[in-house]
Amino acid sequence: MPMKNAGEPSGPIAREGRNCQIIRESDRSAFLIDAKAYFEALARVLPHARQRIVIIGWDLDPKIALTPEEADPPVLGPFLRDLVERNDTLELKILVWALGPVYARKTLDLFREHTWADHPRIALAFDRRHSLRASQHQKIVCVDGTLAFVGGMDLTSERWDDRLHRAEWDLRRSPSGSTYGPVHDAQALISGAAAQGICDVAADRWRRATGEALPPVRGAQAGWPDFIAPALEDCPVAVARTVPPGFGRRRRHETAKLTDDAILAARSSLYIETQYLASFRVAGRLEASLRRDKGPEILIVVTRSSRGMLERIVMEYNRKRLMRRLRRADIHGRLRVMCASTQASDGSRDEVLIHSKIIIVDSSFARIGSSNLNNRSEGLDTECDLAFEAARADHRPAIENLRNDLLAEHLDTSMEAVAQVIDETGSMFAAVDRFAGGRRDLRDLDQPSLEGKVTPLPGTGLFDPRGPARPWQRLRSWLRRAGRALAGKAADPSARSSPEQRRKPERGQAEGQGNEEIHDAKGNHCRQ
Fold this sequence. Notes:
Elements: E1 22-33, H1 35-45, E2 52-57, H2 76-86, E3 91-97, H3 100-105, H4 109-112, E4 122-127, E5 140-143, E6 147-151, E7 183-184, E8 186-191, H5 192-210, E9 232-243, E10 252-253, H6 254-265, E11 269-274, H7 280-291, E12 297-302, H8 309-329, E13 335-343, E14 349-351, E15 353-354, E16 358-361, E17 365-369, H9 375-379, E18 383-389, H10 396-411, H11 415-425, H12 428-434, E19 440-444, H13 460-463, H14 471-491, H15 493-496, H16 499-503, E20 517-519, E21 525-527
Parallel strand pairs: 2-3, 3-4, 7-15, 11-12, 12-13
Antiparallel strand pairs: 1-8, 1-9, 2-5, 5-6, 6-8, 9-10, 9-18, 11-16, 13-14, 13-19, 16-17, 17-18, 20-21
Helix pairs in contact: 6-7, 7-8, 10-11, 11-12
């Protein structure tokens, strides 16, 4: 169905207290697509910090080059050390998930070798205050309480790439010297009250991990970088979190609720980029949208192949089952699940790793953050997302441009060319098909047959859990159930009688009624 005929949502998607923590205005906002743009921005913005830089991440590699295309690029660790040595009033707080370096690089180097952080105004801490199997997955950089970067990118290896996503590129190397394939990601930059809200999230994360409360930044502060053109001005921005319970924290499921509400609010188009597509809760929302007589086109761009063995077993098998469920629901032909590819020099095609976490609804709503569409992002890991919602008519073109720009990158064409096709046809799918076969393009993911299982793979709760493991709570719950069952039996005279007594009909009862089914006081079926 043409997107332009479906209309727009009748009200705002983000609602404070329901699916987000706060909604604050961002004076200026920009979307930084791929790590070249993000790392370059950091290299130019951070030297202007006056008082405090806070970095919150899943991982951090101090050996990465921020701008590999330069002859002598700054290396992250020494670069950060130089910032505080040049500015006597600057302090640097860095919080990394304690197991991030181990999971990401299978090394303990960050724990052993951090002479770059051996400075009284650099504090490097490792976040261990998590439930079993949980991680600190937020990706935040705050500057002076007035600027904040939020998205899907950590300051670590095998993230850097530009928007061309070449299949082979010698500059795309890890600090060890090994090359890696093309990778796509996104980060947002915000300022003003919304940035302060994110800085409060980062300060709270720091306090809970280290016990140190960070006072508000006062006085001179960094301003908006003049080399970055804002995409939006004076736009409301919602901050949504996932916070698992434990360590004195209350459970927060804001990112999951925001995902639900965004999917169900879509009327014309729903564009999603996600590393994983493995949440059956999300599948239920997509299924409801697909079954509507009038609903949006849904285009989902995912990573084709998971990296680790467990990821391949759990995430890919669950994705196949989830897609089977969605195929059954797609009675109007409004769904495409696709992967990004790029052409190698020999003519073969290499996949582009999709690491971004983006949801764009119509021309009214865009979400960028750290949360994936899998179970653990909904209730186990600590996540942070931003949602930009059009409050004025002039905000809508910026959100529409973001979607068209992302499509143009994947389709090896211009944003204007994509916009023209969508304007003519009212369809994202038409743009995908029009520009198919280029050096970069989007290709439909292999479709599972309609026959087969549509429920999560056994063991999903172990490898992609929805929440923290709480064995003692489960034991208490089991004991309570067992106690209630025993109490019910003690109160039921028939439960205390012998088998012979239970088989004998009561006086006056017809023999033909001896097998009549009844319910006891607990509602259990029994025979008399």
